[in-house]
């Protein structure tokens, strides 16, 4: 099974959903389910609320000792300064955020984020003592043209070249084929396995054998029905879940899938 020695990380990317009232309700539902069902051995879950809900979720998680790691969806590359409307990695670290998503395809598409910008954000995440979840993935046309592996490996190389094996090993990389996000069309477990193995090979090529212990997630239309088979793949060490993470029952079912 994926993550046998590396551990499995199931992450809920709430995207632009859940104001702080709604976030409190969702986190209380998650807390109740995790209190009764627990977190399976060798597994970890993180939640990534929008910025305005992070403090609310932090308080609920810490007060009730809910077994969830706190995450964010993005950050700026600078720690502070004249960047109106931005939120820094330093600010997130102060809220005890552990994982920060960088380079989600929605940000690459709608905000024009480049590999260079994603790399600078990852620098900021490490600088502030947190772990990046770096999203990579090909568009449908690239897959159809047989360019998926080259595209994804180039995205991985752009962010991780020149880093120490220790730094790379602390990272999470999420393989999210763009055509599978929010479409209901998940990659097959075999395709997910192939691409996650390619990502791991690129991490090792960049930083040496120890870098291969980084966790590699799959994301794209994951639900309770598809999660078990995906997590059974050798190189799939977790899942990055969008829509289904807004439903506490579905998210906890995904966390338990196949365990
Ligand atoms: P969906 O699970 O809604 O397809 O979203 C996947 C995703 O983009 C997670 O980051």
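-> sequence recovered:
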């Amino acid at each position: 099974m994926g993550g046998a020695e590396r551990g499995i990380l199931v992450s809920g990317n709430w995207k632009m959903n859940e104001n702080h009232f709604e976030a409190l309700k969702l986190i209380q539902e998650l807390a109740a389910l995790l209190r009764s069902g627990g977190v399976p051995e060798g597994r970890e879950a993180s939640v990534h609320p929008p910025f305005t809900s992070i403090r609310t979720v932090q308080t609920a998680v810490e007060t009730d000792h809910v077994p969830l790691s706190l995450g964010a969806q993005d950050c700026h590359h600078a720690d502070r300064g004249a960047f109106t409307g931005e939120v820094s990695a330093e600010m997130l670290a102060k809220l005890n955020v552990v994982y920060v998503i960088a380079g989600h395809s929605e940000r690459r598409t709608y905000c024009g984020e480049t590999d260079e910008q994603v790399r600078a954000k990852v620098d900021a995440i490490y600088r502030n003592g947190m772990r990046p979840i770096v999203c990579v993935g090909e568009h449908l046309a690239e897959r159809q043209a047989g360019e998926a592996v080259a595209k994804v490996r180039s995205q991985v190389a752009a962010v991780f070249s020149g880093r120490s094996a220790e730094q790379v090993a602390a990272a999470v990389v999420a393989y999210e084929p763009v055509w599978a996000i929010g479409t209901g069309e998940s990659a097959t477990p075999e395709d997910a396995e192939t691409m996650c193995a390619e990502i791991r090979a690129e991490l090792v090529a960049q930083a040496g054998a120890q870098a291969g212990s980084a966790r590699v997630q799959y994301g794209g239309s994951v639900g309770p029905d598809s999660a078990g088979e995906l997590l059974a793949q050798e190189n799939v060490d977790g899942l990055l879940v969008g829509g289904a993470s807004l439903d506490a029952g579905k998210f906890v079912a995904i966390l338990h899938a196949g365990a």
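Residues 189-207 form the longest helix (19 residues).
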